[in-house]
Amino acid sequence: MKIENIIEDMYPFIDKLPYTILNQEKNLISNGYISHNSHFIGFLNSLKQEQRSTITDQFEQRRSKYIHQFFEKKLENKSLFHQDLEAIFLKITKLVEEKALTFLSPKKVEDITAKLPQYSKKHAEIFGSAELLNQTLYDPVLCTNKWILNVLYEKLVILQIRPIDKFYMNYFLSRLIFEQSSLEV
Predict the structure, then answer these.
(1) Where does residue 160 fall: left (phi above 0), alpha (psi -120 to 50 degrees), or beta otherwise?
(2) Do the Cβ atoms of 28 and 22 come closer than 8 Å?
(3) Radius of gyration of the chain (CA)
(4) Which of 104, 133, 138, 144 has the most CB atoms around it within 10 Å of its CB?
(5) DSSP 117
(6) Helix, strand, coil distribution of the chain in percent, nearest 5
(7) What pLDDT, on the 0 to 100 scale, is given for residue 29?
(8) Is the pLDDT assigned to residue 42 strictly greater than 60?
(9) What's the start-to-end Cα distance of the chain, in Å?
(10) What is the pLDDT of residues 115-150, one digit of tens each?
(11) What pLDDT does residue 86 have?
């Protein structure tokens, strides 16, 4: 299996998730793509400065070769995988509405505050602000994305997908709606 197959399976679901502006001033949004963007930025943040542009250039070259083929395919949301993802979204939405699940679950706010200096500037801003954190904690799209991506990342290892390909997937999906400049640390 190739990461492009995973991208093609994920795309119809993430593309249909609701788009919400959580905080206009801070450019905090919720949609199916934002978690991929966030994970790619987190990955870049973990790299040395000189590695960042090399990785981004490599990912952009790879994306450029694949993007036309991607859009030529008729990616539909009729698959069983997509239906399962929709069912998960509905379950997580219900748990979030009941306040039984948050974006940080199973962790608590206290668990992340000590780690704020390790986060990217954007993540530290969100998790360091009570207002922005509250807007994130109970957003069903963000919660769903987090849970689905965490499980997906575990399964990618079993499928023998290289770790770097996971971040390429994040880059590719992010670039479908975000400018390259918004993928920078």
Answers:
(1) left
(2) yes
(3) 16
(4) 144
(5) G
(6) 70, 5, 25
(7) 92
(8) yes
(9) 30
(10) 777 776 777 778 778 888 888 899 999 999 999 999
(11) 93
59 Cβ partners below 8 Å, 6+ apart?
167, 168, 171, 172
Quick one: 138 exposed, middle or buried, by C-beta within 10 A (0-12, 13-18, 19+)?
middle
Residue 148 in tokens: 């689905």
3-state SS of 20-63? Answer: EEEECCCCEEECCCHHHHHHHHHHHHCCCHHHHHHHHHHHHHHH
pLDDT at 171: 96
What residue has token string 């001033």? Answer: 25
What are 88-108's pLDDT values in tens digits? 999 999 999 999 999 888 887
Which among 28, 39, 46 is positioned nearest to 118, based on CA atoms? 46
- Count Cβ atoms below 10 Å from residue 13 Cβ, excluding itself: 22
The Cα–Cα gap between 149 and 151 comes to 5
